[in-house]
Write the structure tokens for this entry.
Amino acid sequence: MAKTKLAIIGCGTVGQGLLQIIKDKNADISVVAISDMLKGSLLEPDGIDISIMLDVLGKGGKVDDYDKLGPSAIRGLNAIETIQQCDADIMAEMSYTDIKTGQPATSHIEEALKKGMNVTTSNKGPAALYYKKLSKLAADNGVKFLIEGTVMSGTPVFNLARECFAGCEISEVKGILNGTTNYILTKMEDEGWSYEDALKKAQELGYAEADPTADVEGFDALAKVVILSNVLLGGDVHPDDVPCQGISKITLEDIKSATNEGMRYKLIGSTKLEGNKIIASVKPVKLPLSDPLTGVGGANNALTFDTDLLGKVTIQGAGAGKIETGFSIFVDILNIIRN
């Protein structure tokens, strides 16, 4: 049986995590193209030697620096040209996220789907803004569009709902969707740190960016709530439809007051079916300690699904990480191959 041919668009941290998994698992996958806006591109129909490519990238080199070239290898193509000219079965889209426009990732995905490639992505932009459009385009072309890594990295969300909740109706999904804010709130409660001190430590550890706005003001969680609303609840929700409040105004006094009440603050993203409407929000919420979400500390994520047949089911796990998010792409690839 011929190896599955894979094209990778975006080969930063997550892309290299995926390459590492393919190598370590000795997966029957041939990487025939890699394109990255900063690192260059390589189209290699004979298959790229993953060990050599990882060594090149690990030493700070670029995709262009890979030198084990076959006779048909092409360097220097942009992402769209790479998709058009490669003969891949699956395209993994892992370029940078722009939640306002979904570009350039959406264009990459559209081009691949039109060409008859299956697509998996961990990019929140296209999933939040254009999920229904892209899913229809995939169906029209007889291929798959999978997005497991867009909400909780490799911790299963959509695979869980599709396979393990088959036959269940999901009426509500809520949870901790951002590890940075959860880390900050945990440290404020456990260590008595101020918001500013906890944020500074999160930045030192790499949990928060130099500009932490997307995390601390709830915009990252907002994108994920939109995806959950549209994919799991069948909605047509846009980011502008969802009220969003972050944690930057939460004080140490607020944390202490909640503790004295037997409560705990968490930044909660939620989406719920009420009649024919979807009610979604992102905001700090005081939860009773009996709620399983209050036991989720540090940079972890968690989601509670409210179902008609199983009641409430909570899953906890990593919400970010090189290998963890790379795994989300890998498991989508395996599902495409199996089906």
In short: The chain has a mean pLDDT of 96. The first strand starts at residue 4 and ends at 9. The chain is about 40% helix and 20% strand.
